[in-house]
Fold:
Amino acid sequence: MFHMNRYLGFLLLRGHIAVIILMLSTVVSAQNLPSLLSGRDINSTFAIVAYDKATQKWGVAVATNNIYVGNSTVYIEPGVGAAAVIAETEPVYGINALKNLKHGHSPAQAAQYTIQTDSMPDYRQLGIVDRNGRTFGYTGHALSYWKGYAGHRTGPGYVVMGNQLADSVLVRMADGYEKTAGSFAQRLLAALSAGQAAGGQLSGKQSAALRVDGMNTSWNNRIDLRVDNDVDPVSSLQTLLNYHEGRIILNRSVAAIQCGKTDTGKQLLSQATALLKGWFGMYGKLATAFIMTGEEEKAIQIIQDALQHQEGWKENLSAFYYLEKHDSFRKLLNESAFSVKDWAAAIQQELNMGKNTAALALAKQMTTKYPTSSHLQYLLAKAMLANGNRPDAWESLRRAIKIDPENGDARRMLAKEFSHKE
Structure:
């Protein structure tokens, strides 16, 4: 019996070893082959780094078979230049490149010190473009030993580069960048998409990133998009860029509508709707814009689409109370469950849409129902001002502050509109 237990224990031990070997083999097979064989972190990657003279912007688009490629490969300083560092990534290449460009060196000069002092430069790839659009590309010789093509190409104001690639990737990237119409960001991503369509990386795909920055670019227009882990990262990056540009176009649409340029607003709204498809957080603003153009049925369709895909979107319904006259929308509402905050949202949104008469009527009704709500009193004052009733607006603001002395909105409006009375 004793010997039998020892034998069974041995079999169990062998079973555990087999499981461990199986686990290790799974991990090993998932690694990039050059990284596995050389013990180095070499990732099959392709990228474009470029400068757009018309907009004074610099950009990098990059894709790889590893996770979060945007974490260590992209370096941009507006007014100085940009760099992309791939293969066995060494951030000092990008850091030194920008520092040397800042000191007045050419892109080639900016790279030479780091290349010459690096112990393993033949495992690096580097692309640089400076403030004037001058370029430099570098591909370490060791990368030519691995499967696929490794190299770089330079063009007017740009460098494309990559390793472990299908043969025509870089040619297609250059064509995609040069021949695509649209924004600078769209052209950069077109280069990446063309490279992927040409075969991309032989060993797969996992992440992609796009960064664009320029002189006097406000934070909300700066592009820093990353797909850190995805089965189709370049396509997902395109979706993110669509969302970024769609939001800007939607803002332009609303501004045009508010200025009375309805036809222009409608054209921009159509573009924004297509670009923002699937970003349900923006569907409220889309619906608002359709209401402002008088297309209330389209607004309801947008709302229904959002509700179909995101249950939590129902929290936004009260803001569209204005649509309750439509049977299809009224069926979505549970008015009896509305809180003070829900009614406040309904009033505020009517004001946002320019429905000032409806906002005033609803605000009067709700301040009667909830006389101790400071916020509703403030919204009543806002609606009164929008309808030209300044004396009653002043009284409502005074009531709002009396109920809640910390009501900053009411205090600011009182100071702005009625400072002469205080």
